[in-house]
Amino acid sequence: MITEVEAYDGVNDPASHAFTRTPRSEIMYGPPWRLYVYRIHGHHCANVVTGPTEHASAVLIRAGRVVEGLPIARERRPSVHDDDALARGPGNLTRALGITLADKGTDLLSPTPVALRRRDGPPASNIRDGPRVGVRLAADNPWRFWLADEPSVSAYRRHPRA
């Protein structure tokens, strides 16, 4: 269950990888519902391309609660003893779910290998918003969204040069 995300407004957002079109960000210019995976600081991050095509908007999946496959997630993160922390933070989330660069471009509406499933969401009153984590540019945009009082949500850290 996704518990925390950050939005990136593609070509209009200087904090987005797609602000400048590069081979790495090319997937973001395509159709929505594709997985954009990249490697940073030794771990992978997963984004859902939201479109529209050529606009390159995406949502970074920052945190989640493992609700299925808990034993596998624990195997992938053996040093973590708190299930709330298994997928807290974008690198931990991809590790717990087994998402790698091989998943880049996956159609998230198809059933394999990585897919999104719609479930009833929380009431709007339980969703909080605030500035994005760790970005230097457009740092004050309130485009981070998380579930209130959810222990799997990561801590807010402002970039020191924001």
TrEMBL record:
Its EC number is 3.2.2.-. InterPro entries: Formyl_transferase-like_C_sf (IPR011034), MPG (IPR003180), MPG_sf (IPR036995). It comes from the Bacteria. Keywords: DNA damage, DNA repair, Hydrolase. Pfam families: Pur_DNA_glyco. It is an enzyme of class 3 (hydrolase). NCBIfam families: 3mg, PRK00802.1-3. Belongs to the DNA glycosylase MPG family. This is Putative 3-methyladenine DNA glycosylase.
